[in-house]
């Protein structure tokens, strides 16, 4: 489809030296353009307050007062353009407005172009790079940071240059390589100046046509003319002159093949010189010549733009979102002022003092509140060196000025002051310099043979990239990721650094986002890749995070397993070469978890360094650890390249999931506790993330599919009698033509089965919710099981919509558990799921959902379909959990097949495993706790012999293990229990409710692990430290040996603690000596409460 835009050059004179009147005129011109159906309007050079022609006419010493007045009438972008923005918004017109720009609270001026979109948002400001001749008395030099194009003013990429800035071949080439499709050449009335009367228009025409052809761009040339208001002002304020006359100007719209589409228009007659730009013509022009493609010859010419900020506020000019600039600026200045107050010049040195002084002069000194809080210096930028600072972590990197590459300096414990110089690598052999340094975002090629963080196949087939630093932005707070789950925080919690990279050869941009949560020593990173070129590209690999650690020996810890033995920890040495894991199941899976820990060989549970990395994603993923030839260890987490191949057309972007990295100097346990606190506070958004959960009974292991309304109600009565406060009806309640009497039919037909529930679900739900939990006035709540992402071939849904199931063309659709996976990437499937779940929750008083998912993906229509599925699934999750915030949602995937941070964003608890055996669950739950908070774990007591292991363990042992999860419950039929077990359940439920608040919000200390000890032990300490609960287990009987001591951790050494049933002891005694608990026989257990005195 052709892209067309109606554009016009404004050929007009301002109200000279009258900012207010000219702003009114700009608004009038925009309104007039609306009547002409103009979509894009280009204004002349410094239209506000007019070009200072007097600089050509009078001696410099005579101009001082005139220049001061000109500064007063110049535009402060953040203050003066609100009416213009409103006019753009009302007329739905985008503009490029020429202004003399004045820095806020200062008198430095720039010759600038402001780009404002049709929503009235200022998208950026270009500052003229080189003022010409006597212009240097008026305007400062702009920097490369503002030399760029914008794709947000319409379905095109627009750039601009001012006057003789258009003679700069490299400036024009920079815009060409940035994908410019429309160029605004802003000019004064050059031919009114003495000496230029006969040559100016010819020069302008030649320059504009030259750029149109060599840049393959449409050119809008906008010029003002000199009117009486200008001549009279100069005469009245400076005297007679004969260097500038009335009239002049040259405005036109030019095709890339140099034809005039409108104009040229000259002289003192106001006009909108307009034409329709058919952007599809660019493709035909580029068949002949493509300066950003085959005419570029990158193997011959090496072109680079230094887009580093030059002026104090340059970083705001290229991307100036409404309302954010002032706040960002305030925080930057406050940070510098705090530095001055501390006298912290070791690291910053003289450059910081100069920067601070400049900031104060230009922007004024803000009022500072709460100086000295830990997060104030979370992100510090010194030129092109970057420091992210947490309470106990420092993350530093810098730009290599010779290559534009980002190089890592440090990721570990807090550091201060200047950094010792790093040894310069010697390049010998095949490995080039890029392969001998620590890189932040390694791309493919140029002598780095290690695995890259990004691999992009360009239109011509190349997979080499050259992403170089362009600029950076610092934001207080943390933006959300489009369509993806993400950690969140206020401006007091988190600061975000965005580093903008650009490949001048391919016109590909990459934005690296680093968010630092100082309180948790957490650094969160994601990547956004944008195709700013004209051809299609394919992203074949993209890591959310890549980090190179120094040359030292390290171990890696991962969580692996399978169904019924999820997340078993495995520790191994990092060897030379690539070692990794991941998932191609379409989901995070039981097989491997999207989590990695790197530790030193000496690191233990309680001491030593640990680096944890957790990918906030539910789809297929890849984790790679590579020890390269130089001894550096590269860790990388992100998309699985086997299921990506993401095509990007021009101006399209792909955002990676984010990866959370946490550093701890207090061992693996310290890292885990930071993850737990961080995820509870800043990832899990449900109100139930930290609020008490009702103990539940689930019908599955008690009744299976074999039930009806009366038997289900009877089981609910039994549940209430035991003290359960939530009753959950599991699989088997739906389907009519294809009744769900086994796992062979019915998925997708989400209507209550009329044989089991003749009057629907409401009668059962109403009766159940009228029951009272034993010895309380609490109503029993009702929950239900669903599996919305699945369909059985034996279902009405499948027969009506077979195309809704994921499949690969004519290939057979393989079944698992007799079912297929719905393609949740399809909007119609998303709507189906949202509607049926909404209707279900509205049909009765249902306050809990168990959302199951019982198979992986076998056949995908394309590799990118997995991420498309994830985006659709997250949309469904977000819509439903937002619509029903009072429902407790629990995730499940054949047990723990989707226990990942992506699900935790929406569901505050996840069924940890289908294996409910008490002993197996200790391994599984403690393994899961390596990264995930115990509050997120669903853990139930089931009947014995256990269905998965056949093992019989005491009910107290099973109960105590289950209490270590935030979602405690029962998975059994009370009628089938022996007298002892049934009698024990009410007490265990009461104990679980007492323990639950501490498990939900407290810190977990793994005192001893089942892999290492016959006596696994776990201590939970409440958030305020006033309470603690110890879980102590004995796996095998301790025959004819002494009883071991269990040493506690995390207590206040100086405080006294009352130990339930034992005595009162100091924290130091409990941590350095410990407690003894003799237990009899196999599978013994004990729960002990501690109260701080």
TrEMBL record:
E.C. numbers: 3.2.1.22
Keyword field contains NAD: yes
GO molecular function: alpha-galactosidase activity; hydro-lyase activity; nitrilase activity
Residue span, CN hydrolase domain: 5-279
InterPro entries (alphabetical): Aldolase_TIM (IPR013785), Alpga-gal_N_sf (IPR038417), C-N_Hydrolase (IPR003010), C-N_Hydrolase_sf (IPR036526), GH (IPR017853), Glyco_hydro_36 (IPR002252), Glyco_hydro_36_C (IPR031705), Glyco_hydro_36_N (IPR031704)
Entry's Gene Ontology BP terms: carbohydrate catabolic process
Cofactor: NAD(+); Mg(2+)
UniProt catalytic activity: Hydrolysis of terminal, non-reducing alpha-D-galactose residues in alpha-D-galactosides, including galactose oligosaccharides, galactomannans and galactolipids
Stretches of the chain forming a coiled coil according to its record: none
Keyword annotations from UniProtKB, A to Z: Glycoprotein, Glycosidase, Hydrolase, Magnesium, NAD
Enzyme class: hydrolase
UniProt KW Transmembrane keyword: no
CDD domains: GH36, nitrilases_CHs
Similarity comment text for this entry: Belongs to the glycosyl hydrolase 36 family. Belongs to the carbon-nitrogen hydrolase superfamily. Nitrilase family.
Subunit structure: Homotetramer.
UniProt name for this protein: alpha-galactosidase
Native source organism of the sequence: Byssochlamys spectabilis (strain No. 5 / NBRC 109023) (Paecilomyces variotii)
Phylogenetic placement of the source organism: Eukaryota, Fungi, Dikarya, Ascomycota, Pezizomycotina
